[in-house]
Amino acid sequence: MEDGLLKAISSDGTIRAVIASTTQLVAEARRRHKLSFTATAALGRALTGGALVAAVVLKEGQVTLKFRGNGPLGKVMVDASPEGTVRGFVENPQVELPLNSLGNFDVGQAIGMPGYLHVTVDRGYGIPYSSTVELASGEVGEDINRYLVNSEQSGSIVIVGTHLSAKGVEAAGGLIVQLLPDHTEETICQIENNITTFGTFTFLMRRGMSLDEMLQRILNGFDVQPLGGVKPLRFYCKCSPERFFEALKVLDKKDLIEMAEEDGQAEGRCHFCNEMYYVAKDRLLDLARNYGSRQG
Questions:
Q1: Cβ contact 135:150 at 8 Å
Q2: In the list 34, 63, 183, 280, which could disulfide-bond 14, CB 3.0-4.6 Å?
Q3: First-to-final CA distance of the chain
Q4: Cα dist. 83→119, 143, 200, 212 in Å?
Q5: Phi (first) and psi of residue 52, to 5 degrees
Q6: In this predicted model, what pLDDT tens digit does every residue of 232-262 receive, in sequence order?
Q7: Residues 6+ apart with CB under 8 A from 163
Q8: Rg from Cα positions in the chain
Q9: Quick one: 65 exposed, middle or buried, by C-beta within 10 A (0-12, 13-18, 19+)?
């Protein structure tokens, strides 16, 4: 299945849903950052969660999710846009932990408790809006759910998962179901019963189901209609050699000359995609020579 995202709403106006497959973009993140199994599971869930949250809270702009607990992974950070672009990184990508008591990757222990989820919503105009919630478990899905309940003032169900084997990332994806004002207790019970009977989200993916088929399975008993088609998702970082060169212009003339003479070049690594960028000595010296005109 290609990576993509699908929105839907029930005909009775009780639930709204967004579902995503993210296998390729999580695999790309794992390759770029050389992630351990545990780090892949954590970042994979966060990348999926970022794509889902962006679809829920934005029409345009960007949302940033930063998970910060006291566990060995350190900071887990994701940027996502409603255009379907997602990027992210883990502060300590090589951390590996034993499986938990359920035989799953111990993401909660790796992120650690206590901690916080910081969410910044930038709609592309005005001042970005930031909010912070305490981590509910460090398992990512529950933490995103706590944020949505606080920010959207409505109940929700969040599922995110990453299935790994020795072959790599075999399935990744998730969904958010938002409970709209007209929902009843029966609505919640029906969805929870459906979830307990179908197994894990990635299990359905590995059976070859489409996003619409999985949505109908999870929301069995509701007349759910897709809103448009499947929107493609991809791991995409907006860094570039030009952006790195522009960033050097904030340095002092003295620092530019020292870097050119002592190191022979400038180099920098993008946290989000792990790409390395280099600026040669002659370009650094040109930048230093033009320092006065830039200041003017």
A1: no
A2: 183
A3: 54
A4: 18, 24, 27, 20
A5: -70, -45
A6: 999 999 999 999 999 998 888 888 898 899 8
A7: 169, 170, 171, 172, 200, 202, 203, 205, 206
A8: 21
A9: buried
